[in-house]
Design goal:
There is one protein chain. With 267 residues, the protein is mostly helical. The chain has one domain (21-263). The chain contains 6 helices and 2 strands, in the order ββαααααα.
C-alpha cells in the first residue's frame, strides 16, 4: 500500500493539505555537505540497481536448456524486449549491436519507475529530472553515434538538408530539422518520462491522503467517501504499475526508432 507522505496534514489546523513538489527534493540523509551527498531518492536508485544486478546474476549463473521458473521468467522478459522493441525496429543484425544498451535502458527505467508503488519507497526513482535527462542524453549519443558510424560523410548533411527539397526552402527546413532531430528528440524523451512519473506520484499521494483525511479526521458521513477514495487509490496503484512498464517500453522503443532512422540508407 502507498504510504502517505509526511507533512500532508497540517498539525496546527488539522486540515487537509495536498501533496507538493517538496516530495521530490528530500533532505540529505548521507554524506551531507559533501560531493557524495545522498537523499532517499538516490538511495532508492542504488538499491534498485543492486537488485537488478542480483536478479540477473541469479537468473543467469546456472543456465539450463530446460529453464527453471526463475530463468523462464527472466528469458520471457528479455525475449519480449528483444522481439518487440529491438528486432522490430533494428532487425536481427543491427539489433545485436545495440541490444546491451537497449536492454539496460528498458530494465533500468522500469525498475526506477516501479518504486512508485513499492511500500516505504513510495516515489518513482525516475520522477526527478536528473535521471530522465541522463537517459535522454544516452539515447541522443546512441543515435548520433549510429548515424555517424554508418554514414560518416552523409548523416549530418542529410539530416539537416533532406534530399528533394528546393535549395531556397533550406532556409526554413534546416532549422526545423535541426530542432526536431537534435533538440526535440532528447527533450521530449526526458519530459515524457519525467512528467508521467511525477504526476502519477502526485495523484497517488493525493488519493491516499484524502482517504486518510476522510476516514481519520473529517468525521460525519465522510468516512464513506474515504472508502471510495481508497478503492480509487488501489485502482490507480495498479494503473501506475502499468504506466511504469509502458514508459520503459515507450522510451526504449523510441530510442531504437531513432537509431533505426540514423542507420537508414537515405543517410
Amino acid at each position: 500500500m502507498h504510504l502517505v507522505a509526511p507533512g500532508l496534514f497540517g498539525t496546527e489546523t488539522g486540515g487537509f493539505h495536498g501533496p507538493t513538489l517538496d516530495d521530490f527534493f528530500p533532505a540529505a540523509v548521507l554524506f551531507e555537505g559533501t560531493p557524495f551527498e545522498m537523499n532517499r531518492i538516490m538511495i532508492i536508485r542504488l538499491i534498485m540497481v543492486a537488485l537488478l544486478l542480483l536478479l540477473f546474476w541469479l537468473g543467469t549463473r546456472n543456465l539450463k536448456v530446460v529453464p527453471n521458473r526463475a530463468q523462464g521468467v527472466l528469458e520471457f522478459a528479455l525475449d519480449f524486449v528483444r522481439k518487440n522493441v529491438i528486432e522490430e525496429q533494428l532487425g536481427a543484425k543491427e539489433g545485436r549491436r545495440f541490444a546491451p544498451l537497449l536492454m539496460t535502458m528498458f530494465f533500468l527505467i522500469f525498475a526506477f519507475n516501479f518504486t512508485a508503488v513499492v511500500p516505504f519507497f513510495n516515489i518513482a526513482a525516475s520522477s526527478v529530472v536528473g535521471f530522465p535527462i541522463f537517459m535522454a542524453v544516452v539515447a541522443y549519443i546512441a543515435f548520433i553515434y549510429a548515424g555517424l558510424r554508418k554514414h560518416p560523410g552523409k548523416f549530418l548533411k542529410n539530416s539537416l538538408f533532406p534530399a528533394g527539397v528546393p535549395k531556397v526552402m533550406y532556409l526554413l527546413v534546416t532549422p526545423v530539422e535541426f530542432l526536431s532531430t537534435f533538440v526535440m528528440r532528447p527533450v521530449t524523451l526526458a519530459l515524457r518520462l519525467l512528467m508521467n512519473m511525477l504526476v502519477g506520484h502526485m495523484i497517488l499521494v493525493l488519493l491516499f491522503a484524502a482517504t486518510n483525511f476522510f476516514i481519520m479526521e473529517a468525521g460525519g458521513a465522510f468516512p464513506a467517501l474515504g472508502a471510495g477514495t481508497f478503492v480509487f487509490s488501489l485502482a490507480f496503484t495498479l494503473f501506475e504499475l502499468f504506466v511504469a512498464g509502458l514508459q520503459a517500453y515507450v522510451f526504449t522503443l523510441l530510442t531504437a526508432l531513432y537509431i533505426q532512422l540514423a542507420l537508414a540508407e537515405e543517410h
